[in-house]
Structure formats: C-alpha cells, structure tokens
Amino acid sequence: MEAIMMHEKDNVATAVVDLVSGQEVSVIMADEKIRPVKVACDISLGHKFALNGISKGQPIVKYGEVIGIATENIKIGDYVHVHNVESQRGRGDKA
Amino acid sequence: MSNFSPKTFMGYRRSDGSIGIRNEVAVIAAMDNINPVVRSICKLVPRALPITMIAGRGQFGQDNEQTQRTIIGLGKNPNLAAVLVVSLEPTSAGRIAGAIAASGKPVRTITVQECGGSLNTACAGTRIVAQMLIDASQQVREECDLSSLMLAVECGGTDTTSGLAANPILGMVADQVVDAGGKVIISEVSELLGAEHILAARALNLEVEKKIFDVINNVEAEAKRRGVDIRGANPVPDNIRGGITTLEEKSLGGMVKAGTKTIMDVLDYAAAPSAPGLYIMDTPAPACESLTGLAAAGCQVCVFTTGVGNSIGHPVLPCLKITANPKTVTHFADNIDLSLEGVLRGEESMAEGAARLYDDVLKVASGKMVRAEVLDQLENANAKLQPTV
C-alpha cells in the first residue's frame, strides 16, 4: 500500500511509505485501488500530495471535510503542506 | 462492526463500588511547597506513588475550585488503594482528606507545621505509607465487568498515521466500552477545532450541542483575545514534521479516537461523569495537563496514540501507547506498547487491529504493565485557569 485517500470527496492522499519523485503511486480508499497518480517530488511517509489540480483560494479536502485553503495553484501530484496551504481556524492574527 | 470478547477483566473492588486496575498507595501534595517532602517520603518508600502539584495555595475563585477538584479527584481514583495527604498546615490537609475519604478508602494526613519541619514530616509520612502498602498488598483482584471501565483516549506526537489508523482503531475499542455500559472521555479541546460540527451532531440534546460548540469555539476566542495565530502553538513542530498541515486536519483525524457514540455531556476539567457513555472534557492539549484532568475524573486506563513518538504517562492513570507509524515502532520502541504498522501495510484490517488493541486493554486492566509505568515516565500537572494571587 502506497497512499491512502480517506473519503471520496478528498482532493489529497496521504503517503504511507516514502515516495520518490516521478513514482506512479497507487492510491487506496477503503481497501480498493482508486487510481494511480504520479508524484511531482519526493513525498515522505505521512505527507500529502494532490489528487487533482487545486487553484489558489480553493479548499483542501481530507476526511471529506475542508482542512485548509490553497495559497498558490497546486497541480495534480504536487506536495501539499504548510508551504501552499493555510488554516482558517484559530486565526487571532486576523481578528 | 465486530463484537469483541471477553467482557471482563481482573480488578480491585473498592468500598464505594468502583474498580481499580492498579493498587497503588499515593502520597499527595496539597500544594507546591510540599512537593519536596512528598518526594522525600517516596524515596524512603519507593513503592509509593508521589503526586506533586502546581500551586494549591493563594488561589481563589474558579482557579481554586479547579485545583481542589483535581487533587480530590486524583485521591479518589480507584487505582489508589490508600492515600497520604501532605500539606503545610492542617486546614488544607483536612479538607482534601475529608473529601477523598468519602470514597471509603484509607486516607491519612500529615503537615509540616504540626510535625515540626520537613525531616520530621518525611519520617512520619514514611511510617504511615509503609503500613498502608502492607495493608493494601493483601487485597486480591477479582473478576469485574467491562462496564466498570472509564477509558481515557489521548493523543500526542500526532502525525498523519494517527488519523489514518491509530485513532480510528482506538475509536472502535471506545465504541465497545460504551456498548458494554462503560465510560469513555476524550479531551484536548483545541484539537477538536475544525471537527466541532461533526461532534455537535452527535450530542445527546440541544444543551450538550451548545456546550460542544461553546467549549471548542472558546479556543478560537482565546486566540483572538490574545491577538495571536494559534498555529504557533498547535499544530506543534513535530506534528508538522509528521505531515499534519493544519489544526483542522489534526482535529478531524483526532476526534475519531472517541468512536461514534452519542456525546452525553461536556465536563469541566477534572469533573467526574455520572452516567455511562461518551464525554468530552475541557482540558488543554498537552498530555500532562490532559491526563491529570482525566485521572482526576476517575479514568482507570488510557490508550494514548502517537505518530512521531511521545513517551509520557501519568502516575495514577496507566497509558497504553500505540502507533501505526512503522518508523516510530522501531525508532521509539522503548516507549511503545502496541504496534499497528501492519494496518498501513495492508497486512491487517482495522477490525483485526482493534481486536488486538481491545485484548491488550483488558490485559493492562488485569495487571499487564505499560512502558510508561516500567520506565517511570510519569508526570502529574494540574491545569490552572488564572494566575495565583
């Protein structure tokens, strides 16, 4: 098993092994193989990559829920983490 | 969903009908200025448990109520066979001991002012605790029902494997405990921010639904009040290194460790639930403060999921450490009790992992030791609400 998607609405999957740039990764959801995605860079175990293109300002969806907003345009297979995602909660800095 | 068995374990029956999974004698400090004396007594009687406190004097209002509720709750926890309360002076000692004694267990007090200094108090305390240990050692375990279990579910050093495997598996075990008539408590409310709508939908009634929104939204209100971005404090650097990007992602992966049952109420820090079922407790996210509140409520056992590794446990509340991260299983082996790495490799189903965890929880309840106990990675830390005056 290489990557897991938790919910059908998700636009990211989580690596369960270290993935190598250019690797075609089989994404599993609920024990079923969903589709292969080619990762654009090395993705460490536990880190996420995009299953679709996500435009800047669009929600990142995991567990079928919004976990943050894209801060730049993200392509399919791109690494998704703190460098291109912003949280919307607990933002006392924006109060 | 599989129905796990057996539904019993071997525990210690206390006078008030509660069941302990351990049979400790605790030396409890009523206030921080007595912590050194508590430690001295426990050096002379190494099998006694030292429970040290933060503050305990000069507090007032809600802050004082919370500290007193915590000390008393810890003393009443059924894992303790007997308690020695140590204080500077007799009023505080008597008040705490009187409340603990309502549980029916043996409680004694000593004070530095009455004994005449720290050395005399350490000697007097040692003699009392030595006899308490001998008396307690004569009690034997008996078969107890799963319904007498109050399970604390906790996470620390979270990474994304926590949300993918360890937490949902723990949630399956939590459901079993609730189905059997037991209690489960989830806490660390800042780590429910982003998942509150899901939990609120499972509230027992409108009043509980409002409490759920209030207690979780208060976290955000506090961040706004301080004018800071909570991202500085949560997620923490090890969460982010482990792949957790936002607090919402952490919360959605974290809340599943409580299972799927109705949420009966939102408890104040260190407050005991009355009826069986699933509860949320208002505690800070860091483990020591959270575990202390849960232990004070009467939880006898904790299952503590970790992603990148967290070694801490609590003196009163044995913590069974589990992880699904294969790197952590080897790198952090000394402090891990159960591995779920097979689930992420597709070698074991979530139900099979849950059955193994359930089995281990019953073993721990019946006396199997956990790594945190064996390696003495135990810390008590009562949370404060306001500054002491």
- Name the strands of the widest sheet of chain A in spatial order: 4-3-1-2-5-8
Class per helix and strand makeup of chain B: alpha/beta
The side-by-side strand order for the widest beta sheet of chain B comes to 10-11-9-8-12-13-14
Span of the ends, CA to CA of chain B: 52 Å
What is the string of helix and strand elements of chain B?
Answer: EEEHEHEHEHHEEHEHHHHEEHEEHEHHH
**Number of continuous helical runs of chain A:** 0
Strand % of chain A is: 35-45%
Rg of chain B, Cα atoms, Å: 20 Å
- Residue share in β-strands of chain B: 15-25%
Helix content of chain A: under 10%
Largest interface: chains, residues each:
A-B, 34 and 40 residues
Number of strands of chain B: 14
Sheet with most strands of chain B: 7 strands, parallel
Q: Please give the alpha-carbon distance between the first and last residues of chain A.
A: 43 Å
C-alpha Rg of chain A, in Å? 13 Å
- Can you write the helix and strand succession of chain A as a string? EEEEEEEEE
